[in-house]
């Protein structure tokens, strides 16, 4: 216990790891396994704070065989994310306990689903490695919406993979419906890039695209709120 509390920063953080399946920390060999893994991760540029964050979704990271941890690090590097990079922890989390075959299969699925070239898929993995952990159903729905409905080019998405991290119901769809509604009714003004609109905080989005149209579109705020719940208000249906 005395070793883990400073590593995880607090008893609360340590308890989170234990609750997520990290009970092996209490029975694993501290000197021959856990400490070796911690030292190696630190050498890879993963600080204690990131080690703690890594252990919440991957509680076995510190208790698994050190050679296997080294193999995971090598796998993360093959994604194109170097040790010490800010995205390295996420890459390590993405490939943890996945076989090379599974990673290759998921990469093929990504390329087929979004129509990405090898180069475009590499960009996505380097900048958003967590995409490897998304379900096929989730990726399929995002592809159908972003490519087929919004009309985004595969290359556009590949260079902005953060689009795949946002909630379909809570952000991607509702904001698209609002922009489409405003544009159809001549209220949009200067068109903005879809990604830049998605990236806005909720507060700023409402201030820029909802509030200014209270008189011209008095139901817009209500319809947007409804859309954010996963429903499609009549005013947002254009077909």
UniProtKB/TrEMBL annotation:
Identify the Pfam families for this entry.
mTERF
Reply yes or no: does the keyword Isomerase apply.
no
User: Coiled-coil stretches, from where to where?
Assistant: none
Record GO terms (molecular function): nucleic acid binding
For this UniProt record, the keywords arranged alphabetically read as follows:
Transcription, Transcription regulation, Transcription termination, Transit peptide
According to its UniProt entry, the protein's GO biological process terms are: DNA-templated transcription termination
> What Gene3D superfamilies has UniProt attached to this entry?
Transcription termination factor 3, mitochondrial
Similarity comment text for this entry? Belongs to the mTERF family.
Name of the protein in question? Uncharacterized protein
Origin organism is Triticum turgidum subsp. durum
- Tell me the lineage of the source organism: Eukaryota, Viridiplantae, Streptophyta, Embryophyta, Tracheophyta
């Amino acid at each position: 216990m005395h070793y883990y509390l400073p590593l995880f920063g607090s008893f609360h953080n340590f308890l989170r790891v234990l609750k997520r399946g990290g009970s092996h920390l209490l029975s694993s060999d501290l000197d021959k396994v856990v400490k070796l893994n911690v030292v190696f991760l630190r050498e890879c540029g993963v600080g204690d704070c990131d080690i703690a964050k890594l252990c919440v979704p991957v509680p076995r990271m510190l208790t698994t065989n050190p050679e296997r941890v080294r193999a995971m690090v090598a796998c993360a590097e093959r994604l194109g994310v170097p040790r010490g990079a800010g995205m390295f922890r996420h890459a390590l989390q993405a490939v943890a306990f996945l076989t090379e075959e599974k990673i290759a299969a998921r990469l093929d699925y990504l390329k087929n689903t979004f129509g990405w070239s090898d180069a475009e898929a590499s960009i996505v993995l380097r900048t958003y490695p967590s995409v490897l952990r998304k379900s096929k159903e989730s990726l399929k729905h995002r592809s159908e919406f972003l490519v087929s409905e919004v009309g985004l080019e595969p290359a556009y998405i590949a260079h902005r993979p953060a689009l795949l991290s946002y909630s379909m119901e809570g952000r991607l769809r509702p904001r698209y419906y609002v922009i489409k509604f405003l544009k159809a009714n001549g209220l949009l003004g200067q068109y903005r890039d879809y990604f830049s609109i998605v990236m806005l905080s909720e507060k700023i989005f409402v201030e820029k695209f909802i509030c200014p149209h209270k008189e011209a579109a008095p139901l817009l705020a209500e319809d947007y709120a409804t859309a954010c719940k996963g429903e499609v208000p009549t005013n947002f249906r254009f077909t």
